[in-house]
Every structure is written in structure tokens, then in C-alpha cells.
Amino acid sequence: MNAVHFNGYLATFRLNFKIELRSIWLQAVIVAIPLIIIPFMLPSYRDSLRAQGHLGANGSEQALPGFAILFAMFSLQLVLQLFFQEHEWHTWDRMRVSAVSLLDLVMAKLSVSSMVQVVQVALVMLIGTALYHYRPNGSVLALAAVCLVISIVLTLFGLLLYIFSSSQNMAMSFNNILGMLLAGMGGALSPVSGFPDWAQKLAKGSPVYWAMDAIGKINFDHAGMADVWPDLRILLAFLLALALLATVLFKRGVQRKE
Question: Is the separation of the CB atoms in 156 and 165 below 8 Å?
Fold first, then answer.
């Protein structure tokens, strides 16, 4: 990236970051809600985990990462707003004829969106750790890596929702439906081990499954980076596939909204 492109990217990043700050109250709510819900779910999760042989579990091992990821799916509306508002404000064409390239524009928006996702998941995990005594026995570095990668994967999923949707309302509806589906089937709401056999096989089609599988290893099996690498590798494959699909379809998706 040359200096001109970097300057364009940086200027667009700052603009979108300032726009996101205006909705910081909504981000705070999205962080707060899972932390409020979790204590009601801890007893059932504790019993479920202990029935699986994790006798020292207190339920936070399932509830905290599961709800962090679930509500990260809901916060994709912030990703969608960053793109759709350009059309609502009729500023997309002006941005396109400016010195900012399309790549710089998209990458700046994705950077801000990814940052929001990462911070949100991190806050839920950190505050929840203090409140609900979450104590993984594996590598904290590996846990951070999993949370980082799944956050970026979710951001790219949000980008694809923008591409395929003709309006923001349609994208929001798809996000709520598909978000619950991917999170639920991936084990964010309950351990996949309790699913029927056919559902356990289907769960592997959700990136959330691989994140929760890696976090389960970190929680109970003293897992480090090497142990969760197979899960991370599949998450990175999801990331690459979503990025390639978005690259191929992006311009067509924008044209459909013009």
C-alpha cells in the first residue's frame, strides 16, 4: 500500500471510527445484556457440564464465551450501518470519486467493524471473568487468538449480508435469523455434545462450532496454541472463503443498491 492509499485509508478509518462513537451507547448495551443474562443460565450450564464429566465447572465455561459470541452476532448491525448509511446519506458516489480508492474505503470500514467486534467480545469475557469466576485451565493467549479470529469471521459475515441484501432492513432481518441459527447450531447456547447425532454433524458447518470447540479445549484440557490450531485453521479457512466471496461479489452488490 503506497503513501497515498494509506492516507486515504487512515482518513476513512478516522471518519468511520467517529461515526461508530456516536452509537457507543448501543455497544455498551450489547456488552451489558449478556452479562445480565448469564447468572440466570449458570445453574443449568453447570449441571450440564458436570454431567459431561467436568466436575469442577461452574457454568461460566459455556455461558461466557457462548453469549459473548451470540451477542457479537447481534452487533453486526453496526457493521451493516457503516455500509448502508453511505447509500442513505447519498455519499457513496462522492466517496468513490474522491482520492480514496474502493479498497481503502472497504478496508477502513472493515477495520473499524472488526475492532468493535473484538473489543465487545473482549469486554464481555474480561468483565464476565471477574463477575462469574471464569477460570480456563489452558492458554490465555490461545483463548485471545480464538476470540480475535471469530470476531473477524463475524465481521466478514456481516459484509456478505450487506452485499446480498437490497436494503438495511433486509440485512438486519437476515442477521437476526442467521445469527441465531449459526450461534445455536454451533454450540453457543448449549454444548454440541448434547445434540442429536445429525445435529452434531450439522454443527460443524458453523464457524461458531470451531470457536466453541477450541474454547472448550482451553477451558478443560489445558490446551495451548498447538492444541487449538486445528480449530483455528478451520476458522481461518472460513475467514479466507468469506473474504474471497466478498471480493468477487462486492461491486455487484453495490450496483444493486444504486
Answer: no
Angle in degrees, CA 66, 69, 71, rounded to 5: 105
HSE-up of 110 (CA within 13 Å, CB side)?
21
| Residue 15 burial (CB count, 10 A) | 15
pLDDT tens per residue, range 117-151? 999 999 999 999 999 999 999 999 999 999 999 99
DSSP conformation letters of 186-223:
TTSSS-GGGS-HHHHHHHTTSHHHHHHHHHHHHHHS--
Lowest mean per-residue pLDDT among 37-41, 199-203, 252-256: 252-256
Contacts 24+ apart (CB under 8 A), 246-249: 246/156, 246/159, 246/160, 246/163, 249/160, 249/163, 249/164
Q: Provide DSSP, 41-102.
A: HHHHHHHHHHHTT-TT--SHHHHHHHHHHHHHHHTHHHHHHHHHHHHHTT-HHHHHTSSS-H
Query: Each residue of 7-33: pLDDT tens digit?
Result: 777 878 888 888 788 878 888 888 999
The arithmetic mean of pLDDT across residues 186-208, rounded, is 91
Q: pTM (2 decimals)?
A: 0.88
User: Can you tell me which residue has the cell 454433524?
Assistant: 201
- pLDDT-based confidence at 110, cuts 50/70/90? confident
Question: If we measure between CA atoms, which residue out of 3, 16, 9, 2 comes closest to residue 100?
Answer: 9
State the Cα–Cα distance between residues 100 and 11, nearest whole angstrom.
9
Q: How many residues does the chain have?
A: 258
Please state, in angstroms and rounded to a whole number, the distance separating the CA atoms of residues 250 and 84: 13
Q: 203 near 214, Cβ under 8 Å?
A: no
> Helix (H, G, I), strand (E, B), or coil: what is residue 108?
helix
**Residue type present at position 226:** A
